[in-house]
Design brief:
The complex is a heterodimer of chains A (about 675) and B (about 130). Chain A is an alpha/beta fold and about 675 residues long. Helices cover about 50% and strands about 15% of the residues of chain A. Chain A has 24 helices and 23 strands. In chain A, strands 17-18-16-21-22-23 form a 6-stranded mixed sheet, sandwiched between helices. A 5-stranded parallel sheet of chain A has the order 2-1-3-4-5, with helices on both faces. Chain A has a 5-stranded parallel sheet with strand order 7-6-8-9-10, with helices on both faces. Chain A is globular, with a radius of gyration of 32 Å. Chain A starts with a strand and ends with a strand. Chain B has about 130 residues and is of the alpha/beta class. Chain B has 5 helices and 5 strands; from the N terminus they run βαβαβαβαβα. Chain B has helices spanning about 15-25, 35-45, 65-70, 90-100, 115-120; strands at about 5-10, 30-35, 50-55, 80-85, 105. In chain B, α2 runs parallel beside α3 (about 65-70). Chain B is globular, with a radius of gyration of 13 Å. The chains are: A alpha/beta (about 675), B alpha/beta (about 130). The interface between A and B is medium-sized, with 26 and 22 residues.
Chain lengths: ~675, ~130
């Protein structure tokens, strides 16, 4: 039998708790009576409920702390999640509160916790939850810390043997030793939760054992396996030290490829001041060598090298390809239209003309870094176990995720809001505030209703799984964590969210951006234009005689025309351009860094290509569709988005009036 | 479930500690350890465990040799022995079982269920 004193708690809840937890007696009082009540009877647990603890509460808790040691009286406190984390901390650290619950309280969870704290039997659906297992898991994690040096020394031996194999000089003695160490690794690391480690070690054991000569060609593969084993066991040779609240966010690396030493020096000074790491190459060949070792976050490159720009353009293309995806900023003295188009075609993310102060170049670089960072999904992982966080780091970082880790669950809310992650990983069991509790609170907030939440759990019994899903989680991954499984589940979740998001930003029929999204992006273009003195061209395209097509050939044909026009648009313009449908048959394209004439040129290319497309017309005959367009330039033709749009619209009107199927620029210059 | 007393013989410190911790914390058993076959034989005689968990691959005196020594001595003859081995091939496993041990448990074991495996091998009520 255990007595609970409920202070400020709704009597309905106390009655329910009494029924829910066997051998539990609950007495309810208000805050002013709490101290007196504690003196009258023996209580094992104090359950307090107050939205926001005040000074009187602090005094009460202080008095309780002095008279009743934490070992005799456990305290559970229910409060609003908005309460400052410093107050939450002081409840725990100063006043010995053992567990916090956020309101509205999940009573099942509360009942379960009270039963656990008081050592009372409690079953949800499937009895069989064994709290002693949690303790064992924690203890094993500690053991792992203790033995990791020994275990890593074994990996070292395997590595030595693998390297000797690569060099073709693996001797009998070392080979035998490596086989023994691999055997021991295979037999032990799995018990610490590294099943994958066991698998890798077993592969090494298999290779090294026996006397048959090993094919020298297997050397590299073996060295790779050892490296993988080392990573799996949670230690990267060059791993940066893990900072507890912030994750190991490395400073971005800027690569400058330029033969002009003066330019390089200026950029280096500014970049270093702004906290970037840097690397320099004075030729394309040197750059290639350095790229083999390091992956820069951004590359700034000049086109003018002895021997022409062909080689540097090729490098731009390689770096910008989907597989490497490194943003390139071309910074060069060349400035013909052909150069700009070539650079854009190769996939460069920007074109800056020399001379330009280093500060402005760096503005551009920083913007690219920022947009890269934004493009990488951010994952927030909350776990009080540093090893798990480290393991997540090892698994997620090489896969391009931006992992932020948080060891202190009480800071959860402020961190969540400040980094607004794309996915959340929670541990079930954490001191003072559990993952289930955090999950439930996140789900109660409409802003985070769609945030994917993944649980890490050592228990996959029915009861735990049920609790996880009841709290609103999307998925769970069992511990020990298996890298590929975790990655797959994370990707699944992110893809689904991506799908929802792109549906909200894309015009479904044509696949181009919708109006809302494009206005956002165009506004951003104009801002950059102000800062960097680059022009922006805006083109409005309107299909000719579209109403007639719809009326005479039907809406299905009309839709087909729109769909194919959208496709053609996406093909013609760069991914950096804004391509959007503003309604009906009207499309708007924004081109950063392009002058009016450049914009007209590209639109004319599109018109020529689209004219050639054929659609099914009357009685099996083919028909062709054309469009008219007006092009204007910011800031020359208008000093904000609305004004430029108006200028382009006037040009469009002039083009229609002049007989359609043509492009005109603002100021009605026919083209 | 009555508490059991287990003698664990393994030359590897990490395995010894993780198995000890697992059996103590998850199952609540008492665990005595030995780091060599020789020490294992001594402790089996003096501590009278309910079962011995014995590593196969140990320097000097390996698991099977230790097992035979335990079988010879009347004091330890009746104690059931389970071999622990990282050898996964079926032929190896069969060879070990043919020695007359009570069972074989593969390494790496799952610390959360090691006691269950011992229970199942020896037909103990869990």
């Amino acid at each position: 039998m255990a007595n609970v004193l409920a202070v400020g708690v709704d009597t309905q809840l106390t009655r329910w708790l009494q029924q829910r937890v066997e051998h539990l007696t609950v007495r309810s009082v208000d805050f002013p009576q709490a101290l007196e009540a504690l003196g009258q009877d023996h209580y094992s647990l104090l359950l307090a409920d107050q939205d926001s603890p005040n000074v009187e509460t602090a005094e009460l808790l202080e008095a309780i702390r002095q008279r009743f040691p934490a070992t005799l009286l456990a305290i559970v406190f229910c409060l609003e999640r908005k309460v400052e984390s410093s107050i939450q901390h002081s409840l725990i650290e100063r006043y010995n509160v053992s567990q916090l619950f956020y309101k509205p309280v999940d009573r099942e969870e509360l009942a379960r916790l009270i039963a656990e704290l008081l050592d009372l039997p409690f079953s949800l659906i499937a009895p069989g939850h064994r709290p002693e297992q949690d303790l064992a898991v924690a203890a094993i994690a500690k053991l792992w810390e203790k033995f990791r040096p020994t275990i890593m020394a074994r990996v070292d031996v395997c590595e030595e043997a693998a390297l000797a194999l690569v060099e073709g000089c693996l001797g009998e003695e070392l080979r035998k030793k490596a086989a023994g160490e691999a055997h021991k690794l295979a037999g032990s690391v799995g018990s610490f939760g590294y099943a994958e480690g066991t698998r890798l070690a077993r592969g090494l054991e298999h290779l090294f054992q026996g006397n048959k000569p090993i094919e020298p060609s297997r050397g590299l593969q073996t060295a790779e396996t050892v490296l993988l084993l080392r990573k799996t066991l949670g230690r990267e040779p060059s791993a940066p030290p893990l900072s507890l609240t912030n994750g190991a966010v490395e400073d971005p690396l800027l690569m400058i490829i330029d033969h002009d030493k003066e330019v390089v020096d200026q950029l280096l000074v500014t970049a270093t001041e702004q906290g970037l790491r840097t690397t320099v190459a004075f030729s394309v060949a040197e750059a290639r060598g350095k790229l083999a070792q390091d992956r820069p976050s951004v590359v700034v490159l000049d086109l003018t090298f002895p021997g022409g720009s062909g080689d540097s353009l090729k490098l731009v293309e390689e770096l910008s390809s989907e597989s490497s995806g490194i943003p390139v900023l071309v910074f060069t003295r060349k400035d013909s239209f052909i150069d700009r188009v070539e650079v854009a075609r190769c996939g460069a993310r920007g074109f800056l003309q020399k001379p330009l102060p280093a500060g402005e170049v760096m503005d551009f670089v920083n913007r690219l870094i920022e947009s890269e960072r934004a493009a990488r999904p951010t994952i927030l992982a909350v776990d009080d176990d540093l090893q798990v966080l480290q393991l997540l780091q090892t698994i997620l970082k090489p896969s391009g995720f931006n992992l932020q880790i948080l060891e202190d669950p009480l800071r959860f809310w402020e961190v969540l809001e400040s980094i607004s992650p794309d996915l959340l990983i929670l541990d079930i069991k954490m001191p003072h505030i559990g993952g289930i509790e955090l999950c439930r609170v996140v789900r109660n907030d409409a802003r985070w209703a769609r945030l994917p939440i993944l649980f890490l759990t050592a228990h996959t019994d029915l009861e735990t799984v049920q609790r996880v899903f009841n709290a609103g989680a999307d998925d769970f991954v069992g511990k020990p964590i298996v890298g590929p499984e975790l990655l797959m589940r994370i990707r699944n979740r992110l893809e689904r969210v991506q799908l929802y998001r792109s549906m909200a930003e894309t015009d479904l029929l044509t696949g181009v951006a919708n109006r809302g999204r494009s206005v956002q992006m165009l506004t951003q273009f104009l801002r950059f234009s102000d800062r960097h003195g680059q022009p922006v061209s805006l083109a409005i395209l309107d299909l000719d005689n579209f109403k007639e097509i719809n009326d005479s050939l039907g809406h299905a044909t009309g839709d087909e025309v729109l769909r194919r026009f959208g496709k053609r648009l996406l093909k013609t313009f760069r991914s950096e351009d804004v391509v959007s449908r503003w309604g009906g048959e009207e499309f708007v394209v924004g081109m950063y860094g392009m002058r009016r004439e450049d914009g007209v040129q590209r639109t004319a290319d599109l018109l020529e290509a689209f004219r050639a497309e054929t659609f099914a017309g009357w009685e099996g005959r083919e028909c062709h569709v054309t469009f008219s367009a007006g092009v204007a330039q910011y800031p020359e033709d208008g000093n904000d988005l609305q004004a430029v749009y108006k200028a382009a619209d006037r040009a469009l009107y002039a083009a229609k009036a002049a007989g359609k199927d043509r492009i005109m620029t603002a100021g009605s210059h026919p083209v | 479930m009555t508490s059991k007393r287990i003698l664990l013989v393994d030359d590897e410190d990490d395995i010894r500690e993780v198995a000890k911790l697992s059996l103590e914390m998850v199952a609540g058993w008492e665990v005595i350890t030995a780091s060599s076959g020789r020490e294992g034989i001594q402790k089996a005689a003096t501590e009278k465990p309910d079962a011995v968990l014995l590593d196969v691959m140990m320097p000097e005196m390996d698991g099977p040799t230790t097992f035979q020594a335990l079988q010879i001595s009347p004091a330890t003859k009746g104690i059931p022995v389970i071999l622990l081995t990282a050898k996964v091939q079926a032929a190896d496993q069969r060879r070990f079982k043919s020695l007359g041990v009570a069972g074989v448990i593969a390494k790496p074991f799952d610390p959360m269920t090691l006691a269950d495996q011992v229970n199942a091998t020896l037909g103990w009520q869990s």
